[in-house]
C-alpha cells in the first residue's frame, strides 16, 4: 500500500483540532502549537523529499463514482506554494494570538480558538491539494464554518452580525458555485466519459453555448465573492474589523486566496473560452477594485478595515494578472498570492499587538509610538513596506511581474493600474506617519507601556524572513510556479504576445 | 381475463416477507395492548417493535444479498423482480426495496426515540389518557397515577406497514388503501401529546379533516383514471396513456385530482397548510416519525405512479410539478424565516424539502432509459436526499425534545439564546443537522442536494436547477438564524435548560450524527447501491 503523503498533510491539523477539542482547557494552545509545528515540519520534509526523489505523490480514490468524482489530491506548483505558506502562517497566528480567549468573559475559550484555527488550516490545505472539482468544492465550502466561529467567537462587539454576514456571503457564493459544479458534471456526463478530475476536465472541450457561459459566470461570481472584488467585497471590512488580528490574517492571507486560486484552477483551466469572453469586464472590475480598495484604505480611520481595504486593492491586481493570461502575469499572480499572505499576515499581526495594547483600532488614537515601542513600529514599517512592494521584499517581484506581464498584452489596462502602486505607498506611509511618528501622545504613553515581547517577535520573524528571502532570491518559488503557469497557458490556448518594440540589431 | 373474475392471487411470499413481518408485528402489538398486564407493557411493546423492525430489515438486506441487488454493476431489468405479485397489484422491485430500506431504517430509529422516559422524569412524551377530555378530572387522575400508554407503538408500525405498501403499490386501489393505512394511525398519533393537549388535539382534528378531504379527492381522481383506462392497474394505465398520447379529458382530470391527493401527503404548496400546525401540535417524537416516514412513503408512491403508470404523460406533468416544486421551496423558506418556534421552523423547512425532492422528480432522468448516459438517476437522487434529510430531521427533532423549561419543551427561539455556550456539544450536533438540511459540504445533505440538482439538469431542466440553487441560498439563512441564536446571542433568564438524555435519545442522536457525517464523507457506496435499485418495473400486461 502506498502511503497517502498528501492526505497526511491535511489530516495532521484535523487530528490536532480533534485532540485539542478533547483536551484540558489549559493544554489546548500548547497542543495546537505542537500540531501546527508538526504540520509545518512534515510538509517541508515532504516537499524536500518530493523534489529530491522526484516522485509523484498523487492520490486518487473513487468518491462518488456515479458522477465520476474521486478523492484525488496532488501538488502542482501553485498548490505547493500555497500549502507551504499556509503551514507557515498557522503557527505564527497561534503564537500571536496566544492570549486570546484566556480569562475573557463573554467570549469563547482559548481552546476553541486554537482548535478552529487548526480546522481552518486543515480544510484550506485540502482545498489547495484537491484535484477534483467536487472535492475542491467540498473543502472550499467547509472552510466557512470554522472561520464563522473564529469571527463570531472573539473580537469586537458586533462580531455576531459580522460573522453572520461572512457566513451568508460565503454560503451564497458557494451555492452559486454549486450551480457551476452541477453544470460541469452534466457537461462531463454528456461527453460519455464522466469525470470531475481537474486534469480530465481540462482535457475535455465543451462546445461553448450560453449555458457554458452561465456556468463560467457562476464560478467567477463565487470566486469574486471570496477574493473580494468590488462590488462583492462588503463583507470583508466588517469581518476583519470584528475578528481578532490572527483571525483576520488567516481570513485574508489564506481563505481569500481560495478565490484567486479557484479562478486559475477552474475559470482558466476548465472554461478558457468563456474566460476570454469575460476578460474585458473582469479587467475593468479588477481596476475598480484596485482603486476602490486603495482610496477606501486611505480614507479609513479603522486599522483593521484599512488593511482589509488594502487587500481588496491587492486582490484587484491578482485578478487583473490572472485574466491578462500571459505567462509572466499568471506567474506574477500566483507569486502575489504567496507574498500577500506573508506581508498582510505580518501586518495584521503587528498592528494587532498595538491594538491590543491601545484598546482601540482608530488610527487617530495612536501617535509617537516609535518612541515608546520602536520594535513594534519597526515591524509595522517593514510589513507595511512589503505590502506596498518595496524592492527587496518579495511583493516587489510579484508586483513587477504582474504589471509587466499585463503590459505585454493590455498596455492601457496596465498603465491605468500603475498609479495603484503609488496609492499603496500613500496609505501605508501615511498610516505609519500618523501612528508612529511625531511626539508621544498622552494616550500612547498611558496604554502602550511595553514593546514587543519575545513571543510576539517570534510570531513575526518567520513571516518577515520569508518575504525578505523570497524578495532577494525568488527563483525557487518562481520555478515551481512556472510549471503551473505553463499548464494553464496551454489549457487556455494562449501564447505570450511578441514584444512590441524590437531591439536594435 | 375479465376484471371481475376472481382468481387466486399469486403471492411471492419470499419477496413480501419484510412487509408481512411488519404487518404481523403491528397486529401482535394490538394483542399485547389488549392482553399484557399494564405493568411492563411499555417495555414489551418497545422490544417487540425494535425486534420486529430489525427482523424485517435483516430479511430485506438478505434479499438484496441473495438477488445480488447490492452489486452495483447489475441492472435489475430481469430476474425475479420482473414478476408481478398479488396479480400485478404490488411490485416488489428495486425502488420498492430501496424505499423499504429507508422506511424501515428510519422507523426503527424513530421508535427507539419513542422510548425516551428519562427527560420527562419517568414518563413518556405521550399522554397517559388519550381518550379523556383535556384538563378533565380523568386526565389529571391518570397523570397523577403515572400511567403510561403504549398504543403509539402498534399505531406507528401500522403506519409503517401502510407506507411500505404504498411504495410498492402498482394499482390505484392499492395505492388508495395504502394511503389510508398510513394516514389513519397518524391522525391518532398526532393527538397524543402529553402537554398542551388542546393544541395537540386541534392538530389531530385538522390533520384528519384535511387528510380525509385529500383522500376523497384522490379517490375521485382514481375513479376518473379507471374510467379512462378501464383498469386500476398501472400496466393498463401506462398502455392507455401510450395510445392516446395524453389528450383525453378523463385522463387529465384524473391525473390532476390524483396529483392533488398525493401532493397533500407530501406537504407541497398549495396543499401544505396542515404541516406547520400538525408538526407543532404532535408530540415531538411523532413529528420526527412523520417528517421522514410519511414523506418517504408518499414520495415513493408518487414516483411509481408518475414514472411507471403515467410516464407517458411526462410532458404534461413535468411543467406543473416544476412550478409546484419551486413554489413549495419558496413558500417553505420564506415563511420559515418569520417563525419564532423551532418546531414550526423545522416544519416549514420540511415543506421546503418536499419542494427540493420534486426537482429531481421532474427531471425524470434514469440511468437506463437514456442509454449509457452516466450520472445519478432521479430515483437514486431522491432516495439519497430522503436519507440525508431523514438523519438530519430525526436528529434535530430529538434535540428539540431535550431543550426544556419547567419540564416542558421550550420551543420558542428566545429560549434557545445562548444555548451553544452552555451546552456546546449538543449545540454543535444540532448545528451539523441544520447544516445538512441547508446542504453544506461534509454532510450528507450536500451530496443529496448535489445529486438531486444534477439529475434534474440531466433530464433537461437546467433552469430548474438554477432556480433551485438560488432558492437554496435563501434557505441557508433560515438555518443560520437558528445557529446564530444558539451561539452568538447572550443567554437570558428565558434560556432553557438541557435535559439529560436517556439511552433512547442518545442512540438516536449518535445514529443520526454518524449517518449525516458518514454519508457526507463517504457517499459513494450508498449512491451506487441506490443507483442499482432505481429502475421501476412494470409487470407484463394482464
Provide structural commentary.
The complex is a heterodimer of chains A (505) and B (542). Chain A is an all-alpha fold and 505 residues long. Chain A has a domain at 276-498. Helix content of chain A is 74%, strand content 2%. Chain A has a two-stranded antiparallel ribbon. In chain A, helix 3 (77-96) crosses helix 22 (475-491), helix 10 crosses helix 14 and helix 15 (327-358) crosses helix 22 (475-491). Chain B is an all-alpha fold. Helix content of chain B is 68%, strand content 1%. Chain B contains 20 helices and three strands. Chain B has a three-stranded antiparallel beta sheet with strand order 2-1-3. In chain B, helix 12 runs parallel beside helix 18 and helix 13 (342-363) runs antiparallel to helix 18 (462-488). The longest helix of chain B has 33 residues, at 197-229. Mean pLDDT of chain B is 86; it is low at 70-84. Chains A and B meet through strand 1, helix 5, helix 6 and helix 7 of A and helix 17, helix 18 and helix 20 of B.
Amino acid at each position: 500500500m502506498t502511503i497517502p503523503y498528501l492526505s497526511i498533510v491535511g489530516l495532521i491539523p484535523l487530528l490536532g483540532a480533534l485532540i485539542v477539542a478533547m483536551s484540558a482547557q489549559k493544554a489546548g494552545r500548547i497542543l495546537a502549537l505542537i500540531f501546527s509545528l508538526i504540520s509545518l515540519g512534515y510538509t517541508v520534509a515532504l516537499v524536500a523529499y518530493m523534489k529530491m526523489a522526484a516522485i509523484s505523490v498523487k492520490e486518487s480514490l473513487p468518491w462518488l463514482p456515479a458522477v465520476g468524482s474521486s478523492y484525488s489530491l496532488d501538488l502542482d506548483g501553485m498548490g505547493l506554494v500555497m500549502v507551504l505558506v499556509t503551514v507557515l502562517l498557522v503557527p505564527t497566528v497561534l503564537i500571536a494570538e496566544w492570549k486570546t480567549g484566556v480569562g475573557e468573559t463573554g467570549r469563547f475559550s482559548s481552546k476553541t480558538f486554537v482548535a478552529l484555527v487548526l480546522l481552518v488550516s486543515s480544510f484550506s490545505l485540502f482545498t489547495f491539494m484537491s484535484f477534483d472539482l467536487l472535492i475542491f468544492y467540498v473543502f472550499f465550502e467547509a472552510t466557512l464554518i470554522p472561520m464563522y466561529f473564529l469571527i463570531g467567537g472573539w473580537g469586537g462587539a458586533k462580531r455576531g452580525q459580522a460573522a453572520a454576514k461572512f457566513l451568508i456571503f460565503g454560503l451564497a457564493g458557494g451555492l452559486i458555485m454549486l450551480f457551476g459544479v452541477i453544470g460541469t458534471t452534466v457537461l462531463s456526463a454528456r461527453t460519455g466519459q464522466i469525470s470531475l478530475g481537474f486534469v480530465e476536465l481540462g482535457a475535455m472541450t465543451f462546445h461553448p453555448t450560453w449555458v457554458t457561459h452561465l456556468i463560467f459566470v457562476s464560478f467567477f461570481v463565487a470566486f469574486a465573492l471570496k477574493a473580494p472584488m468590488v462590488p462583492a467585497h462588503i463583507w470583508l471590512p466588517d469581518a476583519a474589523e470584528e475578528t481578532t488580528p490572527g483571525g483576520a490574517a488567516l481570513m485574508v492571507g489564506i481563505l481569500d486566496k481560495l478565490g484567486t486560486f479557484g479562478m486559475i484552477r477552474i475559470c482558466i483551466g476548465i472554461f478558457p473560452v468563456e474566460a476570454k469572453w469575460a476578460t474585458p469586464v473582469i479587467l475593468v472590475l479588477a481596476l475598480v477594485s484596485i482603486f476602490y480598495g486603495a482610496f477606501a484604505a486611505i480614507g479609513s480611520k479603522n486599522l483593521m478595515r484599512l488593511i482589509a481595504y488594502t487587500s481588496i486593492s491587492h486582490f484587484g491586481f491578482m485578478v487583473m494578472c490572472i485574466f491578462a493570461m500571459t505567462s509572466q502575469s499568471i506567474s506574477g499572480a500566483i507569486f502575489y498570492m504567496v507574498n500577500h499572505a506573508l506581508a498582510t499576515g505580518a501586518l495584521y499581526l503587528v498592528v494587532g499587538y498595538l491594538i491590543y495594547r491601545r484598546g482601540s483600532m482608530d488610527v487617530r488614537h495612536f501617535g509617537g509610538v516609535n518612541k515608546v515601542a520602536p520594535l513594534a513600529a519597526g515591524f509595522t514599517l517593514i510589513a507595511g513596506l512589503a505590502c506596498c512592494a518595496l524592492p527587496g521584499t518579495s511583493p516587489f517581484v510579484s508586483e513587477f511581474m504582474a504589471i509587466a506581464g499585463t503590459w505585454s498584452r493590455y498596455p492601457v489596462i496596465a498603465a491605468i493600474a500603475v498609479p495603484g502602486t503609488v496609492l499603496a505607498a500613500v496609505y501605508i506611509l501615511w498610516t505609519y506617519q500618523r501612528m508612529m511618528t511625531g511626539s508621544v501622545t498622552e494616550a500612547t504613553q498611558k496604554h502602550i507601556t511595553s514593546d514587543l515581547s519575545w513571543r510576539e517577535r517570534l510570531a513575526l520573524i518567520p513571516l518577515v524572513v520569508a518575504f525578505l528571502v523570497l524578495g532577494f532570491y525568488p527563483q525557487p518559488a518562481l520555478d515551481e510556479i512556472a510549471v503551473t503557469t505553463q499548464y494553464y497557458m496551454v489549457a487556455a490556448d494562449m501564447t505570450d504576445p511578441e514584444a512590441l518594440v524590437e531591439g536594435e540589431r | 381475463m375479465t376484471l371481475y373474475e376472481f382468481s387466486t392471487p399469486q403471492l411471492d411470499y419470499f419477496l413480501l416477507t419484510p412487509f408481512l413481518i411488519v404487518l404481523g408485528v403491528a397486529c401482535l402489538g394490538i394483542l399485547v395492548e389488549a392482553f399484557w398486564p399494564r405493568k411492563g407493557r411499555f417495555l414489551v411493546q418497545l422490544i417487540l417493535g425494535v425486534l420486529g423492525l430489525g427482523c424485517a430489515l435483516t430479511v430485506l438486506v438478505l434479499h438484496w444479498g441473495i438477488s445480488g441487488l447490492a452489486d452495483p454493476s447489475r441492472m435489475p431489468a430481469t430476474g425475479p423482480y420482473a414478476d408481478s405479485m398479488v396479480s400485478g397489484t404490488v411490485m416488489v422491485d428495486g425502488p420498492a426495496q430501496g424505499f423499504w430500506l429507508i422506511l424501515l431504517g428510519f422507523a426503527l430509529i424513530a421508535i427507539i426515540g419513542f422510548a425516551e422516559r428519562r427527560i420527562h422524569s419517568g414518563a413518556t412524551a405521550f399522554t397517559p389518557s388519550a381518550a379523556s377530555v383535556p384538563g378533565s378530572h380523568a386526565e389529571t387522575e391518570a397523570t397523577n397515577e403515572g400511567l403510561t400508554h403504549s398504543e403509539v407503538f402498534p399505531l406507528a408500525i401500522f403506519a409503517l406497514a401502510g407506507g411500505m405498501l404504498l411504495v410498492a403499490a402498482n394499482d390505484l386501489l392499492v395505492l388508495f388503501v395504502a394511503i389510508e393505512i398510513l394516514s389513519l394511525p397518524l391522525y391518532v398519533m398526532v393527538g397524543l401529546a402529553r402537554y398542551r393537549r388542546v393544541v395537540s388535539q386541534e392538530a389531530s382534528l385538522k390533520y384528519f379533516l384535511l387528510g380525509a378531504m385529500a383522500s376523497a379527492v384522490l379517490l375521485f381522481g382514481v375513479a376518473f383514471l379507471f374510467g379512462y383506462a378501464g383498469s386500476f392497474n398501472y400496466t393498463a394505465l401506462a398502455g392507455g396513456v401510450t395510445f392516446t398520447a395524453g389528450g383525453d379529458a378523463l385522463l387529465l382530470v384524473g391525473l390532476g385530482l390524483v396529483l392533488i391527493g398525493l401532493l397533500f401527503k407530501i406537504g407541497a404548496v398549495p396543499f401544505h397548510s396542515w404541516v406547520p400546525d400538525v408538526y407543532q401540535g404532535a408530540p415531538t417524537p411523532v413529528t420526527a416519525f412523520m417528517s421522514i416516514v410519511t414523506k418517504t412513503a408518499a414520495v415513493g408512491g408518487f414516483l411509481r405512479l408518475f414514472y411507471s403508470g403515467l410516464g407517458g404523460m411526462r410532458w404534461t406533468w413535468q411543467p406543473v410539478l416544476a412550478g409546484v416544486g419551486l413554489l413549495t421551496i419558496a413558500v417553505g423558506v420564506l415563511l420559515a424565516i418569520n417563525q419564532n418556534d423551532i418546531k414550526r421552523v423545522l416544519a416549514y423547512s420540511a415543506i421546503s424539502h418536499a419542494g427540493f425532492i420534486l426537482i429531481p422528480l421532474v427531471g425524470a432522468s434514469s440511468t437506463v432509459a437514456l442509454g449509457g448516459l452516466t450520472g445519478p438517476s432521479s430515483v437514486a437522487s431522491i432516495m439519497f436526499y430522503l436519507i440525508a434529510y431523514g438523519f438530519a430531521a430525526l436528529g434535530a427533532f430529538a434535540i428539540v425534545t431535550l431543550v426544556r423549561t419547567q419540564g416542558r419543551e421550550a420551543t420558542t427561539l428566545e429560549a434557545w439564546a445562548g444555548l451553544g455556550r452552555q451546552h456546546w456539544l449538543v449545540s454543535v450536533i444540532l448545528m451539523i443537522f441544520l447544516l445538512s438540511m441547508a446542504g453544506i459540504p461534509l454532510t450528507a445533505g450536500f451530496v443529496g442536494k448535489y445529486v438531486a440538482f444534477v439529475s434534474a439538469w440531466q433530464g433537461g431542466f437546467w433552469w430548474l436547477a438554477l432556480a433551485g440553487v438560488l432558492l437554496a441560498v435563501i434557505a441557508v439563512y433560515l438555518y443560520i438564524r437558528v445557529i446564530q441564536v444558539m451561539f452568538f446571542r447572550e443567554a437570558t433568564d428565558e434560556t432553557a435548560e438541557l435535559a439529560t438524555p436517556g439511552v433512547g435519545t442518545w442512540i438516536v442522536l449518535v445514529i443520526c450524527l454518524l449517518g449525516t457525517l458518514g454519508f457526507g464523507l463517504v457517499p459513494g457506496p450508498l449512491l451506487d447501491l441506490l443507483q442499482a435499485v432505481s429502475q421501476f418495473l412494470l409487470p407484463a400486461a394482464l
